[in-house]
From TrEMBL:
Organism, as annotated: Muricoprocola aceti
PANTHER family: HTH-TYPE TRANSCRIPTIONAL REGULATOR (PTHR46797), METHYLPHOSPHONATE SYNTHASE (PTHR46797:SF1)
UniProt cross-references to InterPro entries, sorted A to Z: Cro/C1-type_HTH, Lambda_DNA-bd_dom_sf, TransReg_Diox_bact_type
Protein's UniProt name: Helix-turn-helix domain-containing protein
Species classification: Bacteria, Bacillati, Bacillota, Clostridia, Lachnospirales
Highest taxon of source: Bacteria
Segments forming domain HTH cro/C1-type: 12-61
Keywords: DNA-binding
């Protein structure tokens, strides 16, 4: 699967329009359209901003994982329902909230 195909999957999953994605990434709509039409991928210097907007890691976007016909992403590391819930929730937190959660996790692990 092309990286651009994954990008369009995540754009849809995040309920973004191509215009919104363009505005948030600073990538022109015509360039984004070219990815679909010409089946090309974005340049490397744009990957981090794309991942930030789509709330995915560069690994998720660039790895050889595939999206199934049901829209599920086939990750190399399978996650159960609770892990998926935690990961998706973590991605939606603000930076300070993420720091606090990581601090709490660290404290919990030290309680053993």
């Amino acid at each position: 699967m092309l990286i651009s195909e994954k990008i369009f999957y995540y754009i849809e999953k995040n309920q973004l329009t191509q215009k919104e994605f363009s505005e948030r990434t600073g990538i022109s709509q015509s360039t984004i359209s070219d990815w679909r039409r010409k089946r090309t991928n974005p340049s490397a210097d744009r990957i981090l901003k794309i991942c930030e907007v789509l709330k995915v890691t560069p690994y998720e976007l660039l790895s050889e994982q595939n999206v199934s016909s049901e829209g599920e992403v086939d990750f190399l590391l399978p996650l159960d329902r609770d892990e998926t819930l935690l990961l998706e929730g973590f991605r939606n937190l603000q930076s300070r909230q993420k720091d606090r959660l990581i601090g709490y996790l660290t404290a919990l692990r030290e309680m053993k």
